[in-house]
Amino acid sequence: MKPRQQRMLAVGLVIVGVAIATGLTLQAMKDSMMFFVSVTEVAEGKYPADRNFRVGGLVKDGTVQREEGSLEMTFEVTDLRCDLGVSYSGVLPDLFREGQGVVAHGSIDENGIFVADEILAKHDENYMAPEVADSLADHVQDQTLGLQYGPEECPTGDS
Amino acid sequence: MWKFIHQLASPPHFYRIAAKMIPWFMVPALLLIGYGTYAGLFLAPMDYQQGDAFRIIYVHVPSAYLSMMAYMVMAISAGIGLIWRIKLSHAVAAAAAPIGACFTFLALATGSIWGKPMWGTWWEWGDPRLTSELIMLFLYIGYMALRGAIDDTVKADKASAVLALVGAVNVPIIHFSVEWWSSLHQGPTLIKEGGPAMDPAMLYPLLAMILGFTLLFGAMLLRRVRTEVLFRERRTKWVNELVLSGGK
Amino acid sequence: MTARLSADGLTLFRGERLLFQGLSFALNPGELLLLEGQNGSGKTSLMRAIAGLIEFEDGDVMWDGRPVRLNRPSFYGSLVWMQHRVGFKADLTLVENLRFESHLRAQSDEDFDQVLDRLSISRLKRLPIRSLSAGQQRRVALARMLLSKVPLWLMDEPFTNLDRQGRQLVMDVTTEHLDRGGMCIMAAHQDVDIGGNVTKIVLQ
Amino acid sequence: MTNEDSSVGLMSGVLGVARRDLLLAWKRPGDILNPLFFFAMVAALFPLAVGPSPEQLQFSGPAVMWVAALLAMLLSLNSLFLSDFEDGSLDQMLTSPVPLSALALGKTLAHWLTSGLPLVVVAPVVAVTFQMPFFVTGYLMLTLLLGTISLSLLGSVGAALTVGLHRGTALLSLLILPLAMPILIFGARTVSLVAAGDGAAGGLYFLAAYAVLTLSFAPFATAAALRISNE
Q1: pLDDT tens for residues B132-157?
Q2: Which CATH class is domain C1-78+150-204?
Q3: B31 falls within a domain
Q4: Least CB-packed of A3, A129, D43, D189 within 10 Å?
Q5: Which residue in D178, D206, D228 is closest to B139 by CB distance?
Q6: Residue B240 lies in a domain
Q7: B188: domain CATH number?
Q8: H or E stretch at D206
Q9: Which chain C residues have a beta carbon less than 8 Å from that of B152?
Q10: Which chain B residue's Cα is nearest to A123?
Q11: What distance in Å separates the CA atoms of residue C199 and residue B105, rounded to the nearest whole number?
């Protein structure tokens, strides 16, 4: 093989390599977008009781209940379509509040309650004055979780 | 145009021109940073979630941005130096590294201070940007360590250029991996796609700070390259004449 | 008519020190270029730079009229070189070492025995290089040059560690190589008795 | 007497060097075994330090084993080009008619076969002591397989940059570790995910992508670095 051909071959191999790597990365990214599931998917019964997973949603207004003198608490998460009861015992992040987006890790118990062993909340990347935020709050929260469901009827979980 | 670039690449020429260029970077940089600091602290409203704590963004974001920018400047000029064998280009890469490392450190420090009120901890491994910024600092440290370990300037230039380029290929991968890793904690969609939404009264001071920091970086880079050039050319006639004439 | 190997205006620094400036030479088939100079005069550096292992500060070495640094594979296909450290793996046997290099040059190993006999190292064939004396290792390096069948030989101090017979062998082998139309660049302290077309470069 | 195009093909050059280095490794088995013992010992340090609680061992097993594997690879990298540099055969490689990047790839291949692959093979034995379930061990081996390929390739660049420098070992770690962090993240995390009952495909795809990417670039970077270091 002539040196020139060798160089061409090398360049060709690098291009092929980069193309394959890009393809694999895209595949990897597609797969890793599934880090939490929506409440609707849980309601559809896709996640059996013995499996650990993460569920993401908004803390439903007026559902947070704490037990006096302990860290036990319950609340509901919603994706504006389905609701899911969550029980949790532990320290909550500072930003946890009603209407806030949270991701909970845990599994469903026999009563259909999601028993969380970890709750995460995160401030979003929107910066605005408080008065503006008030008027926009609901809308913004919808966006930050990427929720696409309208307020339709929730599919029954028994199916 | 080509002739101008060629002239600029000659060390004595660059040394003179850079001296004249520094004020053109420094003065607007100080004005913009002055405005940004005042407007950021007093004119911008409080954030609806984070209150006054968010104001550290005016130092944090420009530093983080510059840590990337400085790496890009370093890698690109190292690459140019390696391929076209331009010595000035290597001097730019050598000069950019410590500045970049400082901005990276500043970004880490401010990020950590920001983390304390927001997350309740100085360091949060779950934050992808904090973690990848840390790896960025490690990359700078590796680059500077390699440079320091090789005595011969020409060899140090070339070896560190290879490292800078390999690092540049890896920077996006590191970011992606850290984001994937910490997304386990946060869920990637919580972070909004399409850039942050921000109140204009908060945004303008931030833009001013970013531009100001960039110009400041330019001024510091020019100064450091001048020193670097002087050191590298210390055996040449023009530097000797310069020294004898008292730097005029 | 351009020479096969030529150089014009070579300048080389080692660290801060200028070794030489504006050095030029030309080498054609059958010619020997002899580099002379005291210790530290830059013979080895010049040799390594010609082989493309060090970059010249200024000037280019041309092979068939094209700069070497742009045509490394074609230049290296025509070059073999003997340096201070012989460049063999101490744990591998003589034959294993030579076979590896023949493989890279796509040469058959059928004339191994003949060459090893000529250099009187046949009986060392199965020994690891580490158990050979310095002079014997030099002879193996000489075998590498003979087996490579390339036109350009670079020899840095080929007589080091060799006895009188060995030194004569180097000169004989080199003379034959030149007679066949080969080229050689040699750096040496001592007087070299090689007939034919010799050019000398004395480094200060 | 013109043999200008008489060099072997690229692939044959890669295999030629790899075969020589494997032969060398065969004659000095300690060079292969030492990193393996190191791997096992580092992995053993954690249970000794943390305590024998089975849950904790199961939880930290993938991470500990991955860190140990990374350090073992790092340990073996230092000598990759050192003996070639010292005995002058690097000079011979640099002036060989086969492109240097092919030779560098050959050396890296031999390095992986003598340090990466043995780690993959030994991993299940160590995994047993961490009470790792069978199918999780399978994933551990798979991630190690993909990850050590990238580590060998990246490491060859670092080893080439630091060959011949004083204090080369410490420097090599400084250069390579930041670049190796993505491998550690995806390797250890994927195994942890599998152990927790999640899917592993994303991490495996990424490790494969990183291996392919480093395979495309590292040989050229190594070749460039070798030329620079040997000046």
Answers
A1: 889 999 999 999 999 999 988 889 99
A2: alpha beta
A3: yes
A4: A129
A5: D178
A6: yes
A7: 1.20.120
A8: helix D201-229
A9: 15
A10: B49
A11: 60
